[in-house]
Specification:
By secondary structure, the chain is α+β, with helices and mostly antiparallel strands. The protein has helices spanning about 25, 80-95, 135, 150-165, 205-220, 225-240, 245-255, 270-280, and strands spanning about 5, 10-15, 20, 40-45, 45-55, 60-70, 100-110, 115-120, 130, 165, 175-180, 185-190, 195-200. Helix 4 packs parallel to helix 6 (about 225-240) and helix 5 (about 205-220) crosses helix 7.
Length: about 280
């Protein structure tokens, strides 16, 4: 992907070389939802997402514009969400893992403790969020939205994701888009990459904690998957990962702590909870 540096009076960052959004998008991204033809698809605290057609390669192209607002002092010295997402998306593309094509990543000028950032991404046509895929794309019986076919295919894609040193950090069904030419070959796209880490040479214990976190978050969000489908998913994941007996046992132990009979609850402090368990004598 060829990028050119953008430097405006209010925002700076990187823009796809063949992408020419109107000045309103670059100067006032919070007003994108008010532009002609724009559709606001999400408006919540901290984030707004709009769909609008913008110029790419001289043609109007459906795009998503993500506008992030952050007023948290303790995140002041972190990279903006836009830059983190662009970097993660580029690395995923290089590893041939499906994600959004980022057309622009912009950060507001002149702010340290409070910053606004914007991502503009090319919309992927013909995809659905993971659990919506069963009825809307593949015509699977609606009783089983997350089918065995999808479980096996996603296990392979997540294994590839982890083998390439990526850890999503917020892996939920709504952050996995799925499309396919037919049932045997679904294609997945990992999106919402603000928390995604790329650590190819991660220490073994941290690597397994990060992998387990993705699995735990995914399972917690799979409302239509029972225990049998999750077992099929995990068996396929470990079959492809080939982690060795000790490492597989360790990851499964991490997962067991978050099962209904386990002692931990999945949430924002997942990694800190795991680390606390390790420090209080519970060893994998």
């Amino acid at each position: 992907m060829i990028l050119r540096q953008y430097s405006g009076s209010r925002y700076y960052g990187w823009v796809h070389a063949d992408f020419a959004p109107p000045s309103e998008v670059l100067e006032f991204p919070e007003k994108v939802s008010q532009m002609p033809g724009a559709e606001c698809v999400l408006d919540c605290e901290g984030r707004e997402i709009s769909r609008i057609s913008l110029l790419l390669d001289g043609q109007l192209t459906p795009c998503f514009v993500y506008f992030f607002k952050n007023n948290s002092w303790n995140r002041a010295f972190r990279r903006s969400y836009a830059f983190r997402t662009r970097q993660a998306a580029n690395k995923l593309t290089q590893s041939q893992i499906g994600t959004l094509q980022i057309l622009a990543a912009l950060k507001k000028r002149g702010e340290l403790l409070n910053w606004h950032s914007t991502i503009i991404a090319k919309e992927i046509s013909g995809v659905q969020e993971l659990e919506a895929a069963g009825t809307h794309i593949f015509h699977i019986h609606p009783i089983s939205l997350f089918s065995e076919t999808l479980a096996l295919a996603l296990a392979g894609e997540l294994c590839k994701f982890h083998q390439n040193g990526f850890y999503h950090g917020d892996l939920k069904t709504r952050h996995i888009l799925v499309s396919a030419d037919g049932i045997p070959n679904p294609k997945f796209y990992f999106v919402d990459l603000e928390k995604c880490l790329h650590i190819p040479n991660c220490p073994p214990l941290i690597r397994d904690l990060l992998s387990a976190r993705d699995l735990i978050q995914l399972f917690a969000s799979l409302s239509s998957a029972g225990a049998e489908l999750k077992k099929i998913f995990l068996d396929r994941y470990f079959e492809l990962l080939q982690p060795g007996e000790r490492r597989e046992r360790r990851i499964r132990r991490f997962l067991s702590w978050y099962e209904p009979q386990g002692s931990l609850s999945q949430g924002k402090t997942l990694l800190s909870s795991l680390w606390q368990r390790l420090n209080t004598g519970l060893r994998p």
